[in-house]
Structure to design on (286 residues):
């Protein structure tokens, strides 16, 4: 049971780092970016190419995948996304869904349709047994990285000048500009941050989840569930939701293999019935 719990926490951490960028763009910027999974796929493939084909060390490939995806995010934000910031949510949904299909087709053409996995170094392939719990070295690394990310992001958005300027730019961009805040630069930096986090999650989860051109569509629902259950207004909400859903998903597939795939949706329904605004939303928001 403890081993399943450990694997569920590791899987939940992967879900968190994959979905937290969407929490930033959707919950903070109020932009529905259903193409978030395409950025995760891009980061994953950057990591696979760097490690499997070019021989770059795995730990060095992770920040490179994040930076590469952030650069893609900057280009797309300045050329495409900023045109739909003030459009209706339906327009944003249609636009980003179109990007998903274009990205999937482009990856299939350039890299093939077969599923690929990133090659881990030898020191991350081992397992340890602590107090009867079997722990994989790679999953321990995933948990450590994601925990540091959660703390850093929460502090950045709530305790720094950048976070306060971002909230001001989203709440009232006209007043924010009048106070000397460069709203355009703030939005670009935030979108790059969300894209880079998605890319890091794609590279970090490529060994567990695998990569193929349908990756954005397969995991889109999971990203949305994490953000919806957690509540998109903070980082702590998606973090708690990812842990809850990760453990529930792994345990459900182990103990109830015939219906395990539906456990995560059942947990989502129960949480949203009890907390329609998400786990960490104030009750007064109902």
């Amino acid at each position: 049971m403890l081993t399943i719990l450990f694997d569920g926490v590791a899987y939940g951490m992967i879900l968190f780092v994959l979905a937290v960028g969407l929490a930033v763009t959707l919950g903070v910027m109020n932009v529905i970016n259903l193409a978030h999974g395409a950025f995760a796929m891009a980061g994953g493939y950057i990591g696979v190419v760097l490690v499997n084909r070019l021989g770059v060390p795995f730990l060095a490939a992770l920040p490179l995948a994040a930076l590469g995806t952030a650069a893609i995010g900057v280009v797309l934000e300045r050329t495409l996304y900023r045109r739909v910031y003030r459009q209706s949510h339906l327009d944003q949904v249609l636009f980003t869904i179109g990007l998903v299909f274009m990205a999937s087709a482009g990856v299939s053409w350039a890299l093939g349709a077969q599923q690929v996995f990133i090659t881990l170094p030898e020191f991350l392939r081992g397992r340890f047994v602590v107090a009867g719990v079997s722990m994989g070295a790679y999953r321990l690394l995933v948990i450590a990285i994601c925990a540091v990310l959660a703390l850093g992001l929460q502090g950045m958005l709530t305790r720094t000048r950048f976070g306060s300027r971002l909230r001001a730019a989203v709440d009232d961009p006209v007043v924010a500009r009048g106070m000397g805040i460069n709203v355009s630069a703030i939005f670009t930096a935030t979108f790059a941050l969300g894209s880079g986090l998605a890319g890091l999650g794609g590279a970090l989860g490529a060994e567990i989840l695998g990569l193929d051109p349908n990756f954005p569509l397969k995991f889109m629902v999971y990203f949305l569930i994490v953000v919806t259950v957690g509540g998109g207004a903070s980082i702590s909400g998606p973090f708690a939701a990812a842990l809850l859903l990760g453990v529930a998903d792994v345990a459900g597939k182990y103990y109830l293999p015939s219906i395990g795939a539906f456990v995560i949706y059942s947990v989502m329904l129960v949480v949203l019935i009890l907390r329609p605004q998400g786990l960490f939303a104030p009750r007064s928001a109902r």
Residues 2-213 form one domain. The CA atoms of residues 40 and 202 lie 4 Å apart. The mean pLDDT is 86.
